[in-house]
Write a structure and sequence with these properties.
globular; 4 strands; 3 helices; alpha+beta
């Protein structure tokens, strides 16, 4: 099973909570952390297998778009072990 990380960035915390909730309900993924970027931008990071992360990010994007807060999203399949250590620990 190949691991992946997914990121959703929103404008405002409430949209991030909505997107995060949608992601964990849509697929078998784990919330890793939330990062406050500044200027009301916040990002949440999830991890799991590639298919689950893709499905979860799609659900999070849809939800964040619906509430009008989506800024960006990304799925990174097979991230380097160093990157995983940086985010996941």
């Amino acid at each position: 099973m190949s691991e992946a990380i997914g990121l959703i960035e929103t404008r405002g915390y409430v949209g991030l909570v909505e997107a995060s909730d949608a992601m964990v309900k849509a697929a078998n993924v784990e919330l890793v952390k939330s990062i406050s970027i500044g200027g009301a931008l916040v990002t949440t990071i999830i991890k799991g297998d590639v298919g689950s992360v893709k499905a979860a990010v799609d659900a999070g994007k849809e939800t964040a778009s619906r509430v009008g807060n989506l800024v960006a999203s990304h799925v990174m399949a097979r991230p380097s072990p160093e990157l995983l250590k940086f985010f996941v620990g």
